[in-house]
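Putative oxidoreductase: structure, please.
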Amino acid sequence: MSADLVLVSGTSGFLGTAVTLAYLEKGYRVRGTVRSQEKADKWAKKHEGKFDKSKLEWAIVKDVAAPGAFDEAIKGVTILAHTASPFHYDVKDNEKDLLIPALEGTRHALRAAQKEPSVKRVVVTSSFAAVMDFNRLSPETTFTHEDWNPATYDEAKKSDNPTFVYCASKKVAEEEAWKIAREPETKWKLSTVCPPLIFGPPLQVIESLDSLNTSSGAVWGVVDAKEVPETSFPVGTDSRDIANLHVLATTTDEGADKRFLAIAFHFDNSQVVDVARKAFPELDGRLPKAEPSEGKPHFKTDSSLVDRTFGGFKWISFEDSTKDTLAEILRVEKALKQ
Ligand code: NAP
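Here you go.
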């Protein structure tokens, strides 16, 4: 049992839920940020009984992009896990919808941590989006934790491609995090985790499948599709592994000062269909016809820093992660119909 208090930003989100649960399961006290008390109450109700209630408290942060957003929430915190950042492609204004909340949210969270003497460790949820380079997506390329997306804020501001803008938002946010971490007045150590498309059971409060988070929606997207949907990012990892990496990154000496590319598997949506067909007879008639294939030739990745740092990290497999993702969404679908 640890006396550490962990501030998790974005507890209401898909990954924020997994990260919050992971720290609670390991015995840490958690202060979760949400945009409203109503969201906090619904989340607590959904997860009642999974952990000691007294270990979880809330801070309301309506907008991570507002100056001083984290100044109250950070008080007394030893570990900050900053996950809150928009991940969607429904972009009307590149800056307001993606770039500003990603960049300013990270800046405000880490500046607040810089002023709070109790903070010892910080982890920022970055992304493979901050690693990859649209001009190098070829089978000759192996992306590692040393690679950086070359996109700039100004390019992203003008782009009409929402995927490019999202990827740039993650790059500029992570770059800012490392800049703040290297300032002499910063007393804590930073780690960043760069996940690909995150699979795994969506355990956040889901009021309609139309509002499913982007990555769970991408996996669920094979259901009721006429054809196998194009595989946008052919690399994935389970949310429980990403959450555990946040915990390891902030609670071990070895995890400090590192950037972890965290890719467990490469996949194609035809393989998602195949797993779905074999595991869920009830989906018969709701899946497109597909022969499992390797998909289009694409890049390679090297996430071995995770294994080297944490001694043979055990990744959840593509098959198990896909099954658990679909099982949870099927359960939610049934519950929403009742
Ligand atoms: P999500 O379910 O949409 O969660 C996003 C979270 O951020 C929510 O809690 C959301 O609050 C909060 N948030 C967004 N903008 C905010 C703002 N302006 N002010 C306050 N809170 C705000 O998405 P997710 O997939 O879990 O993503 C979480 C993190 O993981 C993000 O940093 C994302 O870039 C990163 N990531 C995700 C994936 C993936 O495949 N899922 C892959 C790589 C990296 P509300 O719920 O109230 O809107």
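Notes: The mean pLDDT is 97.
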